[in-house]
């Protein structure tokens, strides 16, 4: 599995919200309340299971932070970019705004 530089990762459609975070990419979604965060997490869990690729997710009041990396590859891969784009799309569908970390 080939790794991507963060510049290559950033070139994928739909990942504009995501920023380099040490050895991977991360984003924080401001949900406004815990219940919305739980709904977003449920969607992230479904996407992750379908992709067989599981991010680290932290749910707090009032945000959800997601971190992606392909541990077996030792960095970011196409799989991370695809899941990042799907997660960002799902958040928009729920009306949840992202604040990128950097």
Describe the structure.
The chain has 102 residues and is an alpha+beta fold. It has a single domain (6-100), classed as Gyrase A, domain 2 (2-Layer Sandwich), CATH 3.30.1360.20. The protein is 38% helix and 25% strand.
Strand runs, count:
5
Give the low-confidence spans.
Answer: none
The succession of helices and strands, N to C, reads HEEHEEHE
Largest sheet: 5 strands, antiparallel
Q: Provide the CATH top-level class.
A: Alpha Beta
CATH architecture: 2-Layer Sandwich
The CATH topology assignment is Gyrase A, domain 2
Helix content: 25-40%
Classified in CATH, the superfamily is: Transcriptional coactivator/pterin dehydratase
**Amount of beta strand:** 15-25%
Dominant shape: globular
Secondary structure class reads alpha+beta
Number of domains: 1
Radius of gyration: 12 Å
Oligomeric description of these chains? single chain
Number of helices, where a helix is a run of at least 4 consecutive DSSP H or I residues: 3
| Mean pLDDT score | 95
State the end-to-end distance: 26 Å
Layout of strands and helices, then pairs:
Elements (H helix, E strand, L loop, with lengths): L5 H5 L8 E3 L2 E7 L3 H18 L4 E5 L2 E6 L9 H16 L3 E4 L2
Helix pairs in contact: 2-3
């Amino acid at each position: 599995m080939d790794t991507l530089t963060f510049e290559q990762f950033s070139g994928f459609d739909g990942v504009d919200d995501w920023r380099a975070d040490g050895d991977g990419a991360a984003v924080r979604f401001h949900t406004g309340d815990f219940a919305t965060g739980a709904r977003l997490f449920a969607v992230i869990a479904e996407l992750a299971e379908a992709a067989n690729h599981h991010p680290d997710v932290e749910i707090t009041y009032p945000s959800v932070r997601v971190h992606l990396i392909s541990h077996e590859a030792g960095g970011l891969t196409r799989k991370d970019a695809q899941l990042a784009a799907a997660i960002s799309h799902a958040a928009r569908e729920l009306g949840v705004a992202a604040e990128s970390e950097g």
